[in-house]
Design goal:
Blueprint lengths: L8 H7 L7 E3 L8 H10 L5 E3 L8 H7 L4 E3 L7
Length: 80
Amino acid sequence: MQAVKEISNSSISKIATCSSIVYLYLGHAEFVFNTTLKAVAEHLNSVEYLGLKNCYRVSQKIVNKIFPDLKIGGYYTLPI
């Protein structure tokens, strides 16, 4: 698997319209923000795994609030 570092919020929002996605890895994407995760949460109801390794612009508090029961990969790398 190769990490995509140049994905944008608008691209992720478009991906979020694919409601059948179960595994979503956004690790190492420098442009993933809390607002991005909110868009994912609103549209991707079937996601079981969300990879966020080294997504430093994402708040752990937001992840806990939006995805309380979701398996989060790389969770330990998120700032509080």
